[in-house]
Design goal:
One of its GO terms (cellular component) is cytosol. The protein is α/β, with parallel strands linked by helices. Helix content is about 45%, strand content about 15%. Helix 6 runs parallel beside helix 7 and helix 10 packs antiparallel against helix 12.
Amino acid sequence: MFSGSMVALATPMYADGSLDWDSLHNLVEWHIEQGTRALVAVGTTGESATLDVNEHLEVIRRVVDQVAGRVPVIAGTGANSTQEAIELTETASKCGADACLLVTPYYNKPTQEGLYQHYKAIAKAVAIPQILYNVPGRTAVDMLPETVRRLAAIGNIVGIKEATGDLDRARELLEILPRDFAVYSGDDATALELMLAGGHGDISVTANVAPAAVAQMCEAALGGDSGTARAIDERIRILHKVLFVESNPIPVKWALREMGRVDGGIRLPLTSLSPEHHATVREALRSAGIL
């Protein structure tokens, strides 16, 4: 089982939107050095929605090759087309990814039965471990706990990234799912409480800029040391909020540029962080001890 701090890795780009492979290499090494327990390549924060298929798969290949087994690599392979999701998942498996993260189909708004059949088809087609990803604020579809419970009976569906930020929902999942089925937070602001309630880790945006702190907080929470975990989380809590002043990954990519780690490019229809938020994000980085 994957556990702890799993960074939802940003995909570095130049100002013209082309991919910055050198910065990606440096980010991967930095995360491993800082204690990040797994890298999630080409998820929402990695701008999967605007990478073409070749770029998407090349990011996965490069991250897998560079990591070389030092930590798990989880590849984002979700799509609103079941066949496309199967093809992405097959290729990620061939690239050597340790697992795949599959967002609920977006825009076409499937029923709960449609969600079940979608994930069942992908799991049947590709043997790699698969993690469900529920983020209704972005997809306009909410995968309900009963659907997750049905999917948990499929052997290679091993967990869920629950990104609603609803702790009652998270607790319900923890109550009804098998003990060996992982429940991960996809919401940094509530990740600590989810882990203290029995969750297994945090697929984190904040870890992009504060990898050591998020890793230490997760380790403490998973080890039952709530005092240490809360103290660490309090130091970085402002980041959980400020990194969402505009749509993710706009603020986190701007923050990484301020830290000198990326060039700061982002692809349309996303644009760079609005000037009125620059001071807010910069001050949050200072408050967290990053700048």
